[in-house]
Design brief:
By secondary structure, this protein is an all-alpha fold. The protein folds into 2 domains: 203 residues, Growth Hormone, Chain: A (Up-down Bundle); 193 residues, Up-down Bundle (Growth Hormone, Chain: A). It contains 17 helices and no strands.
């Protein structure tokens, strides 16, 4: 097999893996919060799922899997093991959950899902580490942004398909109760492991034939340019940006339907959220290639500026098309940061530290799963309404302003400490 067809086959396998991964997430997690609330009857417990998953994933990646990846040079192997372990774990979690449901212990059944899925995430996070390091291994600084962007576009497409399947499979909770959703997810996990096994064999063959060529490739020398200080500033700025940008995700959803806010119907709300997804999909497909051409720092700064400006626009008008356009631009900013941020991290991190340092990067990006809203956005809005006595719509608008300020601080840090270098 010649080098070019082999390379295309590798990325075809990686694309299929990414597609299945996000179809699976769309199928399983779209209605999980609704199902947990049905069982546990409390918002606080249902919101614990995202936070506990994030903590478990961060611990697994930083304490174990990142170190193992670097020490033993494991990339695809960690992904394959992670998918296989997850398939077995999903089956065990479902059996425990079903047993508790049969015993009429609904609250305990919901709690078993939260604890079981969080424990699963600790082991499954080995797949996240392996994927990040593998994707960086098979790309170069000259094409990384474009390839990562294309894979993120595939991921967005897969997620949309998964969400649509979930709306049929959920069936008022029966999809989880009867195990249909669990079994479908398990089948996709096993398929993903098989796809990655095929990809890993092609990657090993490709690496064996291109090692000598890479020495004269004149590609960006990551190890020589690596600066631990630069990477630390990069992560510090991302922490601030991610917290600021995502802490209002839940607040905005409430503001959309608030009678004194945007007062949108469910149908209008769905279209506005679709605008965010479409903006992100188109951006994923293009921003990586643009970043490869004009520079990743410059492209990332554009995304950060949009992240500052878009929350300020949420309260300027109640016009449907205006809000859809502004929220669509917010999707552009989010996926620019996701795509170009990963590619820039790949440029900075040296090959022998990819497992450990990508574990830290993944942890920072996982703040968007729910902790930032639970710890920052929600309390900030509640403080204004319950203690300061401000009207709900004013409190939410002030929270949007706070989001912009937080992101602006992170952007300034990135511009002065990372981009200038």
């Amino acid at each position: 097999m010649s080098q070019q067809p082999a390379r295309k086959t590798v990325f075809l396998n990686l694309g299929l893996f990414q597609f299945l991964s996000f179809v699976r997430r769309g199928v399983f997690y779209t209605f999980m919060i609704n199902y947990l609330f049905m069982l546990m009857k409390t918002v606080t417990y249902t919101t614990l799922l995202g936070t506990m998953n994030m903590v478990a994933s961060a611990l697994g990646q930083n304490l174990i899997w990142g170190k193992i990846s670097d020490k033993h040079r494991l990339r695809a192997e960690l992904v394959i093991a992670g998918e296989a372990v997850a398939a077995a774990f999903y089956f065990i979690v479902y059996l425990i959950h079903k047993t508790l449901l049969n015993g009429q212990a609904d609250f305990a059944a919901g709690l078993s899902l939260i604890l079981g899925l969080s424990l699963l995430e600790f082991f499954w996070s080995m797949s996240d580490v392996g994927w990040a390091a593998l994707l960086t291994d098979v790309t170069t600084s000259r094409n990384r942004g474009g390839i990562v962007g294309t894979l993120n576009f595939i991921a967005s497409l897969g997620r949309m398909i998964g969400i649509n399947f979930a709306s049929f499979l959920y069936n008022g909770g029966q999809g989880f109760r009867e195990g249909t959703i669990f079994y479908i997810v398990i089948a996709m996990l096993i398929t993903s492991a098989i796809i990655m096994t095929a990809a890993s064999r092609l990657i090993k063959k490709k690496n064996a034939t291109t090692k000598s060529e890479s020495l004269t490739n004149k590609d960006y020398d990551v190890s020589a340019s690596y600066s631990s200080k630069k990477y630390k500033w990069f992560l510090a700025s991302l922490i601030i940006v991610v917290i600021g940008a995502t802490c209002i995700s839940q607040v905005f959803l409430l503001f959309l339907q608030l009678p004194t806010g945007l007062s949108k119907s469910e149908a209008e709300m769905g279209l506005i959220l679709t605008a965010w997804t479409l903006g992100g999909m188109l951006t994923s497909l293009t921003c990586g290639w643009i970043a490869d051409k004009i520079g990743k720092e410059k492209t990332l700064l554009v995304g950060l500026v949009l992240a500052i400006l878009t929350p300020l626009g949420y309260s300027l008008s109640t016009d449907f098309f205006f809000i859809a356009a502004v929220y669509g631009l917010n999707g552009v900013s989010f996926w620019t940061v996701q795509t170009v941020g990963f590619a820039l991290a790949g440029d900075i991190i040296p090959e022998d530290k990819r497992g450990r340092l990508f574990s830290r990067y993944n942890t920072v990006m996982a703040l968007s799963w729910g902790p930032s809203g639970l710890l920052v956005g929600g309390p900030l809005a509640d403080l204004q309404t319950q203690i300061l006595g401000l009207p709900t719509n004013i409190a939410y608008i002030n929270t949007f302003y706070a989001s912009s300020i937080i992101v602006a601080v992170g952007t300034a840090l990135f511009a002065t400490k990372v981009a200038k270098r």
